[in-house]
């Protein structure tokens, strides 16, 4: 049983050390600001800034209601902390019902100024290690990790492929991009062998 993974320190491409650890309630301010910064940068996103929760309390409410703050193994949310600041977030949120709760949905975001340093890869590797080792009380656990990614988000698609995810399907024209064109979304997945 590993309900949440232990913290780990990783050395980034620029030589700095970054702490990857489970998210805690005191991270809500940092996570709120992180999501805003990523959405403002307009790369790889499927939301507009005015669609985000307006303040930290509503943000925290959305996160808790979504189940991301759970510590019972139904979710795992990590933050990357660099020089005291939350610069990345990655999570696996398992589907709710027993027939499908071996499937977890992955979400990830890294602060624009901290991208390309290895934080995204390190967070996913840590999440996958948790998925491989976590066991529910009945012996179950995560057997498949799924995600959706804009087909024009080449960097993210490349990262997922490098970690073993494969494209299972294409949701054609799912996203209306800022220029009004319609962009496909790729459904990618990775099986977790036992
Ligand atoms: C996608 C994202 C999470 C990746 O995180 P990151 O910290 O920037 O990525 P990393 O530095 O760990 O790079 C990981 C891999 O990405 C790929 N990559 C990085 N920069 C790249 C580039 N300029 N072009 C192509 N691939 C690139 C490489 O495969 C790299 O592998 P490597 O470790 O062997 O070099 C991050 O860029 C991000 O948050 N983007 C905006 C929001 C977003 O797209 N979220 C995902 C939605 S599905």
Describe the structure.
It comes from Hyalangium rubrum. GO terms for molecular function: acyltransferase activity. Residues 18-193 form the N-acetyltransferase domain. This is GNAT family N-acetyltransferase. Pfam families: Acetyltransf_1. By secondary structure, the chain is of the alpha+beta class. It has a domain at 8-140: Gcn5-related N-acetyltransferase (GNAT) (Aminopeptidase, 3-Layer(aba) Sandwich), CATH 3.40.630. The chain has 4 helices and 8 strands; from the N terminus they run ββααβββαβαββ. It has an 8-stranded mixed β-sheet, with helices on both faces. β1 and β2 form a beta hairpin. The longest helix is centred in the middle third of the chain and has 15 residues, at 119-133. The chain is globular and about 50 Å long. The model has no long low-confidence stretch (mean pLDDT 97). Coenzyme A binds at residues 38, 43-44, 108-110, 115-121, 147, 149, 153-156, 158-159, 162.
């Amino acid at each position: 049983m590993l309900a949440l993974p232990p913290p780990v320190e990783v050395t980034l491409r620029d030589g700095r050390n970054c702490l990857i650890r489970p998210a805690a309630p005191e991270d809500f301010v940092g996570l709120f600001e992180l999501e805003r910064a990523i959405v403002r940068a307009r790369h790889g996103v499927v939301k507009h800034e005015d669609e985000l929760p307006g303040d930290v309390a509503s943000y925290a409410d959305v996160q808790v209601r979504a189940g991301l703050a759970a510590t019972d193994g139904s979710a795992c949310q990590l933050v990357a902390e660099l020089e005291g600041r939350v610069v990345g977030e990655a999570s696996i949120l398992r589907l709710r019902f027993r027939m499908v709760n071996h499937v977890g949905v992955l979400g990830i975001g890294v602060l624009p100024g901290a991208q390309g340093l290895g934080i995204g890869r390190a967070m996913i590797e840590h999440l996958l290690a948790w998925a491989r080792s976590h066991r529910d009380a009945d012996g179950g656990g995560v057997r498949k990790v799924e995600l959706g990614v804009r087909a024009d988000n080449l960097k993210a698609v490349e990262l997922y492929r490098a970690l073993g995810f494969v494209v299972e399907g294409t949701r054609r024209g799912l996203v209306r991009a800022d220029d009004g064109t319609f962009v496909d979304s790729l459904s990618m997945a990775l099986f977790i062998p036992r």
